[in-house]
From TrEMBL:
Record organism: Natronomicrosphaera hydrolytica
Annotated SUPFAM superfamilies: P-loop containing nucleoside triphosphate hydrolases
Protein name as it appears in the record: YifB family Mg chelatase-like AAA ATPase
Region listing for Disordered, in residue ranges: 201-228
Superkingdom of source: Bacteria
Pfam family, one: Mg_chelatase
Length: 288
């Protein structure tokens, strides 16, 4: 669940939109879950009985809390449920009203959303990958003086600390140099990255006796079992906790990300370099 920044036109939106192309297809059980949700709102395409592609939702920043979370006199699923087992992409994140963004806290934590009414309450599934893009200022550039630094802080203050704390990865996308724009540079294509993702998920499945349990859903006790840290990694994480004033939630998120990095490298054990990389992804804890 990354946040990208900090220059406009640096490719944040392009990277976020390319993310679904490296995700594995839905299993049959997952396809049934997604199809049930879309059937409830009448959005299953005509002539198609089963949705087999992971959903990707991109609500505009003018969306209301009910549109994002769900609601109505007769409760209907919102964007977070329509993105279940898929991707929810929020472009220009600070432009969303803070009260709307704070409604994401429960589904990000629990994987579902509960809508209560006087006569009843209903729970919708909402386990999605949150992708968000943002700039440090409304103008889309980095501050250069004290005035613009204050503007940046006011802009970033639109995001609450508890919401930022629930986001696993914060990634900075730097400005693209002219030479890279005009020259040819080979990169990793989506097909290659998809194979790496498939291999990492298989390692996760093998660790759980053939049942896929993504690293993002591991509890603290399961992390102790499947993602133990050696003494050097523990000391590195302790120093990061003290210097960055990280929360207990961020502590577990770093361990989950480090376990995933190790899986992508086909490493059986988490090494200090995996922990160091995971700590670097807590950009907004350090400040831009």
């Amino acid at each position: 669940m990354p946040i990208f920044g900090p220059f406009t036109g640096s490719g944040k939106t392009m990277v976020a939109k390319a993310m679904p192309s490296i995700l594995p297809p839905l299993s049959r059980d997952e396809a049934l879950q997604v199809t049930r949700i879309y059937s409830a709102v009448g959005q299953v395409p005509k002539g198609q009985s089963l949705l087999t592609r992971r959903p990707v939702r991109s609500p505009h920043h003018t969306a209301s809390p009910a549109a994002l979370i769900g609601g109505g006199t007769i409760p209907r699923p919102g964007e977070v449920s329509l993105a279940h087992l898929g991707v929810l992409f929020l472009d220009e994140l600070p432009e969303f009203p803070r009260q709307v963004l704070d409604t994401l806290r429960q589904p990000l934590e629990d994987g579902n959303v509960t809508i209560a009414r006087a006569h009843s309450s209903i729970r919708f599934p909402a386990r999605f990958m949150l992708l968000a893009a943002m700039n440090p200022t409304p103008k889309g550039d980095m501050p250069v003086d004290e005035v613009s630094h204050r503007q940046m802080q006011r802009y970033l203050d639109r995001l609450s600390g508890p919401l930022i704390d629930r986001i696993d990865i914060h990634v900075e996308v730097p400005k693209v140099p002219y030479k890279q724009l005009t020259g040819e540079r080979a990169g990793t294509d989506s097909a290659t990255m998809r194979k790496q993702v498939f291999a990492a998920r298989k390692r996760q499945s093998d660790r759980n006796g053939g049942t896929l349990k993504p690293n993002s859903t591991l509890t603290g006790r399961e992390l102790d079992e499947h993602a133990p840290l050696d003494d050097a990694s523990k000391e590195m994480l302790r120093q990061a906790m003290d210097s960055l004033n990280l929360s207990a939630r961020a502590y577990d998120k770093i361990r989950r990300v480090a376990r995933t990095i190790a899986d992508l490298e086909t490493a059986d054990a988490i090494a200090p370099q995996h922990v160091a990389e995971a700590i670097q992804y807590r950009l907004l804890d350090r400040g831009l």
